[in-house]
Amino acid sequence: MIELSDLTKRYGAKTAVEGLTFSVRPGVVTGFLGPNGAGKSTTMRMMLGLDHPTDGEVRIDGRRYAELRDPLTFIGALLEARSVHPGRTAYHHLQCLAQSNGIPTRRIDEVLDLVGLTAVARKRPKGFSLGMGQRLGIASAMLGDPRILMFDEPVNGLDPEGIHWIRNLMKRLAAEGRTVFVSSHLMSEMALTAEHLVVIGRGRLLADTSMARFIEENARTSVRVRSPEPERLREALEGAGLAPARRPDGGFEVEGGDTARVGELAAEHRVTLHELSVERASLEEAFMRLTHGTVEYQAHDGGDDELG
């Protein structure tokens, strides 16, 4: 488990992280989200002792990172996959990490096989593609067989097969009872991977909740309904105080509606339905709604009033 208590980091007059308190628990994949400049990287660096907090503290299984004797056996992390000595082969990079953390050398071959790099183990990473570099970074994180894993943008550079692989790997690690903490800007991928979310904006905690509740609380859900008698359907919906919006396919979207209620209204008015379904909001929509006011740099659409 990772526990943050009133974690704060200031750089001169700028506060990068302010009063963060949350826990990352074992058994689920926890997603870490926030706009650029929100303080995610600073927070993860403080978790690993790479930056020192101005106030507050981080506990890794009850201890500060500096108190861990062989840290890779407690927590493995992928923050910057390219942080590899260019003169060492992939095998020797892992060997140096293993020797400095008291990890048996047999583990090197195991993690190279796990990430699919056995065939290039004796090659230097400077010639690796971005995806291969990510796999080596994941191998480094897994080297000590830790109970806690942290991944920052783990799917960068991976092809579809690689993305599918890392997604399933994170789920399997969580199912084994490990703590898995992952940060990513790919909302579609996070929606398929994470069960719990921690969201920050401008260094402050905005949400610490389940994926399902986060979407429910921060994005709209509507009912999609279509009938060969659209005008009768519209009249029935409006008569019940609902506000149907016409869709391009001739059907209606009823924001905030309920499928049972819409279906019962149609039956009551003897209106035939060809479609009745829930239009669920996406994680991206929920994230954008929650964090809109915390985005540090916002692009504009380039309208005439701005280009003047």
From TrEMBL:
Protein family membership: Belongs to the ABC transporter superfamily.
The organism's place on the tree of life at top rank: Bacteria
PROSITE patterns: ABC_TRANSPORTER_2
Source organism of this protein record: Streptomyces hainanensis
Protein name stated in the entry: ATP-binding cassette domain-containing protein
Pfam families: ABC_tran
Signal peptide per UniProt: none
Ranges where the ABC transporter domain occurs: 2-227
PANTHER family referenced in this protein's UniProt entry, alphabetically: ABC TRANSPORTER, ATP-BINDING PROTEIN
GO MF annotations in UniProt: ATP binding; ATP hydrolysis activity
SMART domains, alphabetized: AAA (SM00382)
Keywords carried by this UniProt record: ATP-binding, Nucleotide-binding, Transport
